[in-house]
Design goal:
Blueprint lengths: L7 H4 L12 E4 L6 E7 L2 E8 L16 E2 L5
Antiparallel strand pairs: 1-2, 2-3, 3-4
């Protein structure tokens, strides 16, 4: 139930065209770990890492703002 002084047409309207595209989920292996990726003009960019393994946060390839999939060096 939603209580608001605004009319339902305003509250439930779709997002504007300039709004950011929705994030895409990408699993990281067979466990519950996953990445949230923001689509971009040249591929996806890591937006957020969701994991319970602290070692994953130290991996620079999974840092926010890096391109995904990571390029081989």
């Amino acid at each position: 139930m939603l209580y608001s002084i605004l009319p339902p047409e305003i509250v439930l309207e779709p997002p504007p065209a300039w709004a950011a595209p929705p994030l895409r989920e990408e699993p990281l292996g067979p466990g519950p770990d996953r990445l949230l990726l923001r689509p971009g003009p040249h591929g996806a960019v890591v937006e957020r890492l969701v994991t319970t393994d602290p070692r994953r946060y130290l991996d620079p390839r999974l840092a926010p703002g890096t391109p995904y999939p990571p390029r081989a060096r």
